[in-house]
Amino acid sequence: MEISVTLLLIIITCIISFTSFNNQKLVDQLIFYPPAVKRGQWYRFFSCGLIHADIGHLLFNMFALYVFGEGRVNTPYGPVYAGVEFQFVEVFGKMGKLVYLAMYILALGASLIPTYAKNKNNYYYKSLGASGAVSAVVFASILFRPLAGMGLFFIPIYIAGFLFGIIYLLVSNWMEKKGGDNINHSAHIFGAVFGLGFTIIVCMAFRDYPVLSLFVEQIKNMRPEDIIQFGGG
After folding, report:
1. pLDDT band at 232, cuts 50/70/90?
2. Deepest of 12, 65, 104, 173, by most Cβ within 10 A of its Cβ?
3. Rounded to whole angstroms, how far apart are CA atoms 50 and 31?
4. CA separation (Å) from 128 to 18, 37, 51, 57, 119?
5. What's the CATH code of the domain at 88?
6. Which domain holds residue 127?
């Protein structure tokens, strides 16, 4: 059985993250540290996505990556895959997995560019985690399936994905301005924006797939019951 890119990313990230929990030297080598990047260690834009602050941080990111990247839904007719990786395979064929992997890796770096610009001379600033790349996957999923129910874990009330995305960006922007919680909300915001932009560009440029038009069409045809749902979409 062929392993998905999503599961491969989760396995690699979990192995390195668990290793780093008891290895401060490894953390120091991989963490996003703007002054070190300024000295030429550009790999930190990407390596920081392989380590996490703690088990909770790791599990939250990897669970979200699995749900929106793999997107396996069990039906009476067998499992149906609706995650971003499989959406890309539908659009790009065999190259879809590579396109998906490229989006994830590039999102890690792109989501941290504003952080670097703001903190390149800040010797007290460090950042870690795959949240920027995971946000890109989540928002690419929203682009493909804007009416799919999304919400907070363990709360069985969901809203249409595109509305959840808007709320997510507004709350992240507010929390970024507020500060004080040691979370890089900027990476969440710019990772999300990158995921949207990357998906639109590659779909239209390389396959002439009207993903943005289909997104708008689904919202135009939205029913009242699509706004609030009791169960995932």
Report:
1. very low
2. 104
3. 9
4. 14, 14, 6, 10, 14
5. 1.20.1540.10
6. 5-229
